[in-house]
Amino acid sequence: MFKLLAKMTAAHEGAIWTCGWGRTAPKKPEQNGDDEVADEQNDIHDVIVSGSMDGTVKIWDFDGDKLKRNAQLDGHCFGVVSVEINADSTMIVSSSLDSTIRIWDIEERKLVRKIEGGPLDIWTVAFSPDSKHVISGCQNGKINIYDSASGNLLSTLDSRGKFILSIAYSPDGKYIASGAVDGIISVFDVATGKLVHTLEGHAMPIRSLSFSPDSELLLTASDDKHMKLYDVQRANAVATLSGHASWVLSVAFAPDKSHFVSGSSDNTVKVWQLENRTCLHTFKEHGDQVWQVKYSPDSTKILSVSDDHSLCVYSHERPPPARREKYGRLRIANDDG
After folding, report:
1. Which of 34, 42, 290, 323 could form a disulfide with 263 if both were Cys (CB 3.0 to 4.6 A apart)?
2. What's the CA gap between 156 and 178, in Å, rounded?
3. Cβ of 63: how many Cβ atoms within 10 Å?
4. Would 34 be classed as within a structural domain?
């Protein structure tokens, strides 16, 4: 059920702080005939992105058991601290210690937009679900919202707090959450721009945030070695999870919401079941702290990147669903029927 599928050592020349996983379908001319659907399925492929302290963003192809570098995107002058792939996997946004945000075209492998910021204006970045906006958490406790097409600054949300280390856009587009160095989580209503919730469950820096696919839950990771699950509407913690021996640096929900994954400075990656809030498996493939983890779009694989310059892909295959036969007996479905 859980196993290492591929590991790329020396994937970058520096520590790898950030990654993303998308699924692309190259545009093709219109077709006629029965082969059209089959051809479209064959054209769909996974794309993995990594960003490093060496200042580069790299695009990787993954064919099931092997990682292969597809492209290297150069332009940042200093380390890349955050990358994200947009919803339809056509663009990458990256942010760097050089105080710039760059938007890249995945198919063309080229820069399409550069956004300049001040020394306190840019840290982690994220796309809005419709890809029209890019948000960036700032060291002064503010969130800048940019137009992704023009690069113009549209508005600023003020958490009235400290350095924002992590941000997340809810999949339904209604909320933006930020996590600060003082352990405070702020949730904003996108439509009004107002701060609607302030969550104070952690006492140490919030390294990562992840909304559930239905936008009902917010998962947080902190230097206090704990993760918390919050009910977004009620603004209350519904669970506190522990298991890592050091800072929890990254968390991510599976797209099917059944599980989530965490990475830590204890060098491990842990897989958790949402329903019963338990850790199902621990991967120990990295030799240094794990800065970010992501699920594949189909929820069957996990990606992790680390200070050890490596990139790992793991299998998280689900058991086939049980189906009920006559007389109430349970049978595990399989390909043989």
Report:
1. 290
2. 13
3. 10
4. no
Q: Is residue 31 part of a domain?
A: no
φ, ψ at 35 (rounded to 5°): -85, -5
Q: Please say whether the beta carbons of 231 and 238 come within 8 A.
A: yes
- The verdict on residue 39 lying in a domain is no
What is the radius of gyration, based on Cα positions, of the chain? 20
Distance CA 117, CA 120 (A): 8
Give, rounded to a whole angstrom, the gap between the first and last alpha carbons of the chain.
Answer: 21
**What single DSSP character describes residue 226?**
E
What CATH number does residue 262 fall under? Answer: 2.130.10.10
Domain range for 218: 2-25+44-332
DSSP element (H, E) containing 41: helix 35-43
* Mean pLDDT split into 10-residue runs, the chain, 337 residues: 95 98 72 50 82 98 90 96 96 96 96 88 92 94 95 94 94 97 96 96 96 98 98 96 98 97 98 96 98 97 98 84 47 41
Total domains present in the chain? 1
Residue 21 CA to residue 294 CA, distance in Å, equals 7
Q: Report the residue count for the chain.
A: 337
Q: Which amino acid is at 146?
A: Y
In a domain? residue 33:
no
